[in-house]
Amino acid sequence: MPKRSLPIAPDRLLVDSTARYELFSMMDAYQGYHKIFMTEEDRATYQRLVNRMFKDQIGKTMEVFVDDMLVKSTEEDHLKNLEQAFRTMRAYGMKLNPSKCTFGVRCGKFLGYMVNEKGIEPNPEKIEAIAGLRSPRTLKEVQKLTGKIASLSRFISRSADRSLLFFKSLGKAKEFKWTEECEQALQSLKRYLATPPLLANPKVGEELFLYLAISEDVVSSVLVREQEKTQNPVYYVSKML
């Protein structure tokens, strides 16, 4: 019998839907989808199960990505929403890993991002991973650097411009050299990430602004919202041509 597939919502969409709430509780299902007898990579089967379990809460008071769960609400409704989530877990015999759970916080980590009422911030651990990085000495180390940058790209203005020299160095396998220009670009990136932006959460129906910057090698854009005559970034996108 062919496997049934179920698209898993991109984690960024789930993270975006959590910002603007006052309180959060992050939970991790004990052993998660490993409890189901299937190949480890087939997470869609488990996602289908939890979607069915929490069908009345997902998108309203909860978000669920495989075995990562988040309850979101106003301060007034948080205990009520948690009670509803626990009632569902108890009905299905789901257990939680207490060492990976956090309850009733105003800011917390969900799917690798920091979420709060004002918006979304990068995971400090990802920032530190670049800040503490030594200057690459091999192509493999450059590849690791570009991978770390990619994981933070939504927070980096003109990220492709900032990392263009790194990618160009990858195309010179036989004559790899970490140039002074590459070093300057790396240090500039580290300074930028020392004070990363808070990505604002737009409200339904409000007017947003899109700015583009195009060069010979890169096209970059930023979506912003305006509040009290101040523009704040919502999302950065940057691609090499």
UniProtKB/TrEMBL annotation:
- Report what the protein is called: Retrovirus-related Pol polyprotein from transposon opus
Q: Where is the Reverse transcriptase domain?
A: 45-114
Q: Which InterPro entries does this entry report, sorted A to Z?
A: DNA/RNA_pol_sf, Retrovirus_Pol_polyprotein, Rev_trsase/Diguanyl_cyclase, RT_dom, RT_RNaseH_2
Which species is listed as the source?
Sesamum latifolium
State a single Gene Ontology molecular function.
catalytic activity
List, for all copies, the residue spans of the domain called Reverse transcriptase/retrotransposon-derived protein RNase H-like.
178-240
List the SUPFAM superfamilies: DNA/RNA polymerases
Identify the keywords attached in UniProt to this record, alphabetized: Multifunctional enzyme
